[in-house]
Amino acid sequence: MTTVGILGGGQLARMMALAGAPLGLRFLLLDNVSDACAGQFAPMLVGDYRDETILAEFARKVDVATFDFENVPAESAHWLSDKVSVFPSPNALAVSQDRLAEKNLFRRLGIDVPDFRDITGFTGLQDAIAAIGMPCILKTRRLGYDGKGQFRIRSAADIDAAWQALGAQAQTVGLILEAFVPFEREISVLAVRARDGEFRHWALTENWHEQGVLSASLSPATESAAFEAEAIGYARRVAEELDYVGVFALELFLHGGRLMANEMAPRVHNSGHWTIEGAETSQFQNHLRAVLGLPLGSTRSVGVSCMLNWIGAMPDPAAVLNEAGGHWHDYGKTSREGRKVGHATVREDTPVALAESLARVGEILGRQSQVAPALTRISNCRTAETPWT
Questions:
Q1: Whole-angstrom Cα distance, residue 312 to residue 211?
Q2: Cα–Cα distance between 263 and 320 in angstroms, integer?
Q3: Residue 34 has what DSSP assignment?
Q4: pLDDT tens figures, 370-387
Q5: What is the largest CA-CA distance in the chain?
Q6: Please, which residues have CB within 8 angstroms of residue 15's CB and are 6 or more apart in sequence?
Q7: In which residue ranges of the chain is CATH 3.30.470.20 found?
Q8: C-alpha distances out from residue 294 to 12, 16, 184, Å
Q9: Which of 21, 140, 194, 305 has the CA that lies 20 to 30 A from 289?
Q10: CATH superfamily name and code, 185-383
């Protein structure tokens, strides 16, 4: 029986293990905390990702290794790759860990990106702001996610505060200044590439965030055929350039008729959770198929889906479970402000049925504001000339 090793033991590893059970797979996790939620479903080693003793034990016990988050030290991934097959490759992981390297890759591949500058000191920050303009966003090059490690500079009065908040990290994880994009829509491309280079993608997904954390995702996104082809083309270029193996997400902004890349996530992704019920093959199972060299499954959508993230604490599940297309996912985590503790997916055969179901869920849970953007999008598309009508 094949054993898949996963570096990281969070909810993505948990859902990966659940998706791998029908394939007859075993799993071994490595995490630096003992209560990581995937440990409820698979054996887990606990230790520092840089500890070569525990990495060696991990490597001895698995047939292939992958990740559930991108901030595993790249040097640990390289060390492991000398002992066992690692997918995606440590080189792909290293690029996606560094916002500057990632933006340079996008630009080199002809993918439109917001203006950006490498920041090494306060004077450099002032010069970059003068060049890019305000508003803009100062970010750590590494270790930032879900809105962490960022400071929005709206006016000159914010510059000192931004440097005080993040400046010390210029010489450790590095800093990058990016132009602020007042985007009309945020879209993600979820794709998978096999060991033999086969490339597949799911339907585009539209996303809405609250305080930097994903709140809701709707798929298929109601986008024009031209923009859809451009978005998928971007993802294919990145995958082929990095010789990528596995699932990844490319996050894009749509602004003023331009499609601009924000960032890449080299793993299964929150905006793809809808694929568990809303696609022939979920992102989790296709990731496993890819890293194991198995045939990829169909990425065809099954109806229309909306995923709702639960942040901080789980609501009452009854409102979702009473819906015919309601699906509940509790990650087994303790409640904590700002923490992703679960999600729900509502899937229906038609946009009208999905809107009706979402409205009921939002009303009962008192989460009308969370479902409102998706309801507005569905309503607009029912009257517009789009591929989704």
A1: 13
A2: 32
A3: T
A4: 999 999 999 987 554 444
A5: 61
A6: 268, 273, 276, 284, 329
A7: 185-383
A8: 20, 15, 39
A9: 305
A10: ATP-grasp fold, B domain (3.30.470.20)
